[in-house]
Amino acid sequence: MALLLRLVLLCGVADFTSSLSITTPDQMIEKAKGETAYLPCKFTLSPEDQGPLDIEWLLSPADNQKVDQVIILYSGDKIYDDYYQDLKGRVHFTSSDLKSGDASINVTNLRLSDIGTYQCKVKKAPGVGNKKIQLTVLVKPSGIRCYVDGSEEIGNDFKLKCEPKEGSLPLQYEWQKLSNSQKLPTLWLPDMKSPVISVKNASTEYSGTYSCTVTNRVGSDQCQLRLNVVPPSNRAGTIAGAIVGILLALVLIGLIVFCCRKKRREEKYEKEVHHDIREDVPPPKSRASTARSYIGSNHSSLGSMSPSNMEGYAKTQYNQVPSEDFERTPQSPTLPPAKVAAPNLSRMGAVPVMIPAQSKDGSIV
């Protein structure tokens, strides 16, 4: 019995004189992306703890494949915070006097990669203690977009949609009507907590301004939309106008193509004509110049006539002169042909001779 009492007393003295202990309990902390997370770690020392004070924070990333990383260290009255590149410059001790019993840290500008389990270790020989804190980084809802999916016409079915650009799950939605009435239509009540409201057989009473608020554990965001239910549009007129526009466009295109082709044909014709003309070929003589040349040559012949060659010349008929240069006087077939006087050869230096005419049977008259 005395032995048992002695053991109890020894245990009580041991608990009372226990060494270093961390008073901060294990906990879970949720913070939004971009914010600052405060990770507490407070400790107490006992008179027996006489060794140098060492404080160490480690991170066990959410990816279990990665090993624990030292993110900040206090040893020999110096702070070392460049062990972990991903948190370099973003992790700091909150107390300027760590010996006072506060080893808490701040992690600023939180990122999704900061998610994990953080462990605080305090050592002052012979005392040693440690605590763990689970940090979760969430993304607040942002970039909320409200819009109408469908045609806002009387009698139509369409949808009101509320979509956040980003936000950590779970997300909560809440619709409100901001104009005319603060209440949503009764048929919409089942959807007022969802991202989509299905509208059936729309009427003008649904017109107004609506808001959608999206919330999660770390924040919220809101968007608004204006719903204006109008009478159905004249679809037949719209279709007819579109058809007419298309036909006019086709006609215009056809005219452009026709003009281009016509211009190309004209240019091609001009090139061919220019190629066929030869500069070394003289132009053709006119009929009048031909006749004058013929008469001039006859006159020259008459000027050089002598009595010896007059007989041959007399046999030459005047009808050999081109018909296009002289107009003949029509003669009656019953009258004998008149004697034609020879040209005045005295002017040409020749003896005048009368040239007998010939009748139709060839006899000389």
Automatic annotation (TrEMBL):
<dbReference type="GO" id="GO:0016323">
    <property type="term" value="C:basolateral plasma membrane"/>
</dbReference>
<keyword id="KW-1015">Disulfide bond</keyword>
<keyword id="KW-0449">Lipoprotein</keyword>
<dbReference type="InterPro" id="IPR007110">
    <property type="entry name" value="Ig-like_dom"/>
</dbReference>
<keyword id="KW-0732">Signal</keyword>
<dbReference type="GO" id="GO:0005912">
    <property type="term" value="C:adherens junction"/>
</dbReference>
<keyword id="KW-0325">Glycoprotein</keyword>
<feature type="domain" description="Ig-like">
    <location>
        <begin position="141"/>
        <end position="228"/>
    </location>
</feature>
<dbReference type="InterPro" id="IPR013106">
    <property type="entry name" value="Ig_V-set"/>
</dbReference>
<dbReference type="GO" id="GO:0050839">
    <property type="term" value="F:cell adhesion molecule binding"/>
</dbReference>
<keyword id="KW-0564">Palmitate</keyword>
<dbReference type="GO" id="GO:0034109">
    <property type="term" value="P:homotypic cell-cell adhesion"/>
</dbReference>
<dbReference type="InterPro" id="IPR013783">
    <property type="entry name" value="Ig-like_fold"/>
</dbReference>
<keyword id="KW-1133">Transmembrane helix</keyword>
<keyword id="KW-0597">Phosphoprotein</keyword>
<keyword id="KW-0677">Repeat</keyword>
<dbReference type="InterPro" id="IPR052307">
    <property type="entry name" value="EJ_Adhesion_Regulator"/>
</dbReference>
<dbReference type="InterPro" id="IPR036179">
    <property type="entry name" value="Ig-like_dom_sf"/>
</dbReference>
<keyword id="KW-0130">Cell adhesion</keyword>
<protein>
    <submittedName>
        <fullName>CXADR Ig-like cell adhesion molecule</fullName>
    </submittedName>
</protein>
<keyword id="KW-0675">Receptor</keyword>
<feature type="domain" description="Ig-like">
    <location>
        <begin position="18"/>
        <end position="136"/>
    </location>
</feature>
<keyword id="KW-0472">Membrane</keyword>
<feature type="region of interest" description="Disordered">
    <location>
        <begin position="269"/>
        <end position="343"/>
    </location>
</feature>
<dbReference type="GO" id="GO:0014704">
    <property type="term" value="C:intercalated disc"/>
</dbReference>
<feature type="compositionally biased region" description="Polar residues">
    <location>
        <begin position="287"/>
        <end position="309"/>
    </location>
</feature>
<dbReference type="GO" id="GO:0005923">
    <property type="term" value="C:bicellular tight junction"/>
</dbReference>
<feature type="transmembrane region" description="Helical">
    <location>
        <begin position="239"/>
        <end position="260"/>
    </location>
</feature>
<keyword id="KW-0965">Cell junction</keyword>
<comment type="function">
    <text>Component of the epithelial apical junction complex that may function as a homophilic cell adhesion molecule and is essential for tight junction integrity. Also involved in transepithelial migration of leukocytes through adhesive interactions with JAML a transmembrane protein of the plasma membrane of leukocytes. The interaction between both receptors also mediates the activation of gamma-delta T-cells, a subpopulation of T-cells residing in epithelia and involved in tissue homeostasis and repair.</text>
</comment>
<keyword id="KW-0393">Immunoglobulin domain</keyword>
<dbReference type="Pfam" id="PF13895">
    <property type="entry name" value="Ig_2"/>
</dbReference>
<dbReference type="InterPro" id="IPR003598">
    <property type="entry name" value="Ig_sub2"/>
</dbReference>
<dbReference type="Pfam" id="PF07686">
    <property type="entry name" value="V-set"/>
</dbReference>
<keyword id="KW-1003">Cell membrane</keyword>
<feature type="compositionally biased region" description="Basic and acidic residues">
    <location>
        <begin position="269"/>
        <end position="282"/>
    </location>
</feature>
<dbReference type="InterPro" id="IPR003599">
    <property type="entry name" value="Ig_sub"/>
</dbReference>
<keyword id="KW-0796">Tight junction</keyword>
<feature type="signal peptide">
    <location>
        <begin position="1"/>
        <end position="19"/>
    </location>
</feature>
<keyword id="KW-0812">Transmembrane</keyword>
